[in-house]
Amino acid sequence: MIDWPSRLNLAQLPTPVTRLEKYSAQLDGVNLWVKRDELTGTEVSGNKIRKLEFTIAEALNQSCDTLITCGGLQSNHCRATAILATRLGLKVHLILRGSEPDTLEGNLFLDYLTGATITYLPQDQWRTHETLAREIQQDYSKGGNKAYFIPIGASDEVGLWGYIAACQELQEDFETLGFEPEYIVTATGSGGTQGGLIVGAELFKMSSQVLAFNVCDDAAYFERKIRSDITLWMQRYKQEIAVGRLKINTVEGYVGQGYGIASAEVLDTIADLARLDGIFLDPVYTGKAFHGMVSEIRRGEQGKLAGAENVLFIHTGGLFGLFPQQQYFQFGK
Questions:
Q1: What is the DSSP letter of 16?
Q2: What SS3 state is found at 130?
Q3: Alpha helices (H) in 62-159, listed in sequence order
């Protein structure tokens, strides 16, 4: 029996699981399924809201009236946090990596519409973002406000609960479908979704392997980060789990030129899926992970998904991130 912590009801759950009929037909004997977590809401769509249900609940438990968080200029997490904070009557302060652009697009445009306070931090100073967050936190305290700091992607021992709970939902999905896929695939950027799925799969005794495609950093980073988060989760919530036997499988090789930079092959994959099955991926997270997954499937027995008949892809959202990069797509006239 799991002793669940406080949780807010913020997401539209459960999200559906659908089979990619046309795309699967291109893959020799492999059925692709999508957990549609881009449908957790409209403005707050994506995986971040699952984590924030627990993270913001913790902030409220601590009587905080302000949320501070950080991410890239087109951060899905920052956008979701800003919108949820507004709905809940909380102040929000975002620390964004980079310089203020001339044009406000995508997630950043929505951040401004919510009235979020935004501080820009240049890329070469980004390593100091947590120090800056603590300084801002102290400034709010001096002004009579109590601020709660949420790390990048809400990926910490509190945020892990988001995809632990999602695994309970997946267990019900698999019972309805009548099978359990050999692999559950996700993009990983801050490690919270990947870590939550790994813990959840263990707690709910799922046979599916969790496989993640990194969009930044490397496999060694995620090995350290996720094991650290799980250890802190065990300590904080008095949970027992065999951390040593958990497999943290991160597939490298699909980051391309760097975080947020999509190759022509990734853009083609995004366009193909939209054209075939009407599902929209983003260039930063889901596009790269989906492209990596399909590439590995097509490698057959040499690929990381060898022998799979059914593969479930977690669609973690990111639609608004498409628009700032629309100029990079090439369409026939």
A1: P
A2: helix
A3: 76-87, 106-113, 129-142
Q: How do residues 153-203 score in pLDDT, each as one tens digit?
A: 999 999 999 999 999 999 999 999 999 999 999 999 999 999 999 999 999
Of the candidates 6, 24, 63, 75, the residue annotated as catalytic is 75
DSSP-derived secondary structure letter, 183: E
State how far the Cα of 131 lies from the Cα of 146, in Å rounded to an integer. Answer: 17
| Mean pLDDT calculated for residue range 21-48 | 96
Average pLDDT, the chain: 96
- What does the pLDDT average to over 91-103? 96
Q: 235 exposed, middle or buried (CB, 10 Å; 0-12, 13-18, 19+)? A: exposed
Extract the tokens encoding 17.
């699981």
Q: Which residues contact 248 (CB under 8 A, 6 or more apart)?
A: 194, 198, 219, 222, 223, 226, 227
- What residues form DSSP beta bridges with 70? 95
- What is the rounded distance in angstroms from the CA atom of residue 68 to the CA atom of residue 94? 6
Per the annotation, the verdict on 63 as an active-site residue is no
Six token digits for residue 196: 């939550």
Is residue 97 within 8 A of residue 73, CB to CB? The reply is: yes
Tell me, what's the pLDDT at 324?
A: 83
Per-residue confidence (pLDDT) for residue 332, from 0 to 100: 61
- pTM for the full predicted model: 0.96
Angle CA(64)–CA(157)–CA(80) in degrees, nearest 5?
55
- Kindly indicate the confidence band of residue 245, based on its pLDDT and cuts at 50, 70 and 90: confident
DSSP 295: H
Domains within the chain, CATH numbers bracketed: 17-46+156-328 (3.40.50.1100), 48-154 (3.40.50.1100)
Structure tokens, 298: 């097509």
The helix-helix angle for 219-237 and 192-203 (nearest 10°) equals 60
Of 61, 112, 62, whose CA–CA distance to 82 is shortest? 112
Note the pLDDT tens digit of each residue in 161-175: 999 999 999 999 999
Backbone angles phi, psi at 71, to 5 degrees: 170, -170
Report the DSSP beta bridge partners of residue 312: 33, 184
Q: Can you give the pLDDT at residue 74?
A: 94
Q: Token pair of 296, please? A: 């590995």
